[in-house]
Amino acid sequence: MPFPLTDPAWIETRDFLKQHARELDAILAPNEFMEFFPGNYHYNITYLLPPSHFDYVVIHKGMVAEIEPPFALEVLRTFQPLFANAVFVVFAKQPPENAPKAAGVHLQPLLNQLAVVEAQQRGKVKPIRYGVTITTYNRPESLGRSLPQIRQLGAPVVIVDDASSPENAAANQRIADEHGVPLIRIPENRGLPNAMNVGIGYWLADPAIDWISYFQDDVDVHPDLFKILEKIQDPVERPILAGRDALEHPTFAKGSIAGYEVLFKRSMPGQHLHAHRDYWAGVMPIPTPYLGAPKPTGGKPGQGADEDWWITAWSPHAIPKRGKYLICVPGLVRSFQITEQGSTWGNISERQEDGQPIIDAALKELAVPAVAKADSVERVERDSRSDPCGNRPPDPPLAEPVLAGLKVLVDGYNLQLTTGTGIRTYAVNLIRALTVLGADVDVLLSRNSNKKDPILDEVLFFDEQDVGGRKLVENLMLVKDLLKSSVPSLYRAWRREAVGEVVLKQGKFTEDFIQLARSYNLPKCYSVANAAFNLFGRSTQVTIPEKIDLWHATFPLPVSIPGAKKVTTIHDLIPLRLPYTTLDNKKDFYNKVKRSLKDSTLTIAVSEHTKKDVLSYFDADPDKIVVTYQPVNIKPLDATPEEIGDFLKRYRLGYQNYLLFVGAIEPKKNVGRLLEAYAALETDLPLVIVGKKAWSFEDDLGRLDYLFDPGTKQDVRLLEYVPGDALRYLYQGAYCFVFPSLYEGFGLPPIEAMTMGCPVVTSSASCLPEVCGPAALYVNPYDVADIQAKLEQILGDRPLRDQLAETGKQVAQNFSLKNYLNRLSAAYLRAIG
Questions:
Q1: pTM of the model
Q2: What are 160-179's pLDDT values in tens digits?
Q3: Strand partners, 274
Q4: Is 1 helix (H, G, I), strand (E, B) or coil?
Q5: Burial 606-622 (b: 16+ CB within 10 A, else e)
Q6: For 591-632, what is each residue's pLDDT tens digit?
Q7: Host H or E run for residue 684
Q8: Domain 641-815 in CATH 3.40.30.20
Q9: CATH code for 407-627?
Q10: φ and ψ at 425, to 5 degrees?
């Protein structure tokens, strides 16, 4: 249905998108929008791509029939209408800040149409249709064993032969013909990702197929596989499942769904993967560097991403990226193997209890998966050696000293601050973890000093570092240091020696910092490095009198250590993603991150979402960016509710009788909208805000004056500073924790709350669904009404509150110190490689 480009409704809609959408945002709209928005897709793609692929969906009220009904209904459920006129309605996945709401008079006609569509869909009771893809390569014996079992499942099958030898290809074709199954033979072996792209694409081209099961050619299958999976699968909540467990892929929890024992995973092997067509459409094709070229570093021809990891974990549309889990139903599939020779895969051969390989045993029916009484989720205890992301075992030591003998230097930029910051906490935990792993750790500080007089050196080191009123002298010294820093051999740090009790430090400085005072120091070296980078675009080399193996910058710094490899941690790209929420010099920040990615042997990201952001903004090698997350050191109280309640009386609070927010009061934390949502609640539970007043706090706290007056029953308590132990009581005693942040790199406060058994209501933005998983109630952080609704939901549903609290304890185990040590040691071993 083309329409004239002079139509006022079209022009109005186009101008709205030009105002709010970015140039390359993915937009579903009629083709007429393509000229202005290169990321435009037409409606006929809705059978293939899920709504989550798009940033905006523009629905022409006269073209609703051209959109797949499930797609349109999912948009209605998960997107927010921003704009409507007589012809168009614009929906957004993540509404921009201050975006308007669609006018009801123009929105309602579309809602009426979609209500009819929804009723029609409910009236269509059609059987679920499955399609099966099998890939094979030089193993006709395996195919001959697996194909008859898979055919008995009752679904149509296609076989993809990845260029087997002529003899084996002929045997495969005979087996396929015998069972009436089509076989696609690829003329040249291009690796399993390419074969899977062909086989899954075969079924995606058939809109009648709802679910697609992929099998390798070396599997035995349960005869009721589809009947069992049909009771568990869900296109939205559980869109990808697997029938075979593998110890090398960590299990985060176990439970039961529809009476069957299940495992909650974030990655799975590729022997069997079963997914809804929308999920397959979102993760396919598996990227390959070409069609046919060998892998640059050797290995299987045509191999790009590891196919199983891409499908289950790495793709931007993989289920863990949505904060959810893959579901494994162990016992539905098992693998066998005749020989590794000539095969694409090197699967471990499964054996029977007597040690006999399965391939040599008589074929027999697999056991029905263990049945549980009701749907549940429970903690899983595992041997940490087989699970680098699992729960901490109670008995073994935290970690082996795998970094023994490694000399590591960590920047002290944030460590030397006397007030806490998120990066300071990260640096403290990093040093503790490296020490546990056996590394010899030092810190490079940049405080005032005097090399000639030890006593004066001690005084200047612990003095306030802002000299104020001495700008001329300070600038002259900066010029002197800039000149010196251009010659690395002259720009040297030295190790400080403590001088007794010359300075009384207790009460002002933490024990951590007092210990760090014996590390290396070079006055104002970070100021000099930043100035040199801004003025000349060069990284500053700081010479250390001892050999350093690895220099770890806890955030992007233009500093290098001669002879040492560099590792940089990137926490977030908030200054680039939400530039209006920070005071950073955005050009400076961008260039420092870009330079750090270039200079670092390895970059550590604190979440997959941060890694994704880095790859979106910079031309970086994804293999050189490793996600370690962060550890959570806070520990639950061994206290009764009565004891917690007694402690809370000092804050005039009752046990589970208040809402809690923890974080700096600054634009990105979204405190203003939280206050508006709280003001609209019918509750007398106080809202406790724990956090320092940061940049632009007046804008948020200024709302207190007009939202609340002495007659309102709501009560907002501001606690700027709370000691660590008191914070544990506040977490554990709260009814729930509310954290509607606009953007986070990791999101430590929600994990702390979950660790303490406090249920979480948090934002659906950035990394928060990734780290909180199924243990949180999610809100649109830009929608005050949604924040209010979710708070009303948890306040009115005590069983939901208790369920989230229990699930949160399990999810928080993913970020234990043990798991962090495993991830950190793997990253360091890779860096020093």
A1: 0.54
A2: 999 999 999 999 999 999 99
A3: 213, 241
A4: coil
A5: bbbbbbbbbeeebebee
A6: 999 999 999 999 999 999 999 999 999 999 999 999 999 999
A7: none
A8: no
A9: 3.40.50
A10: -60, -45
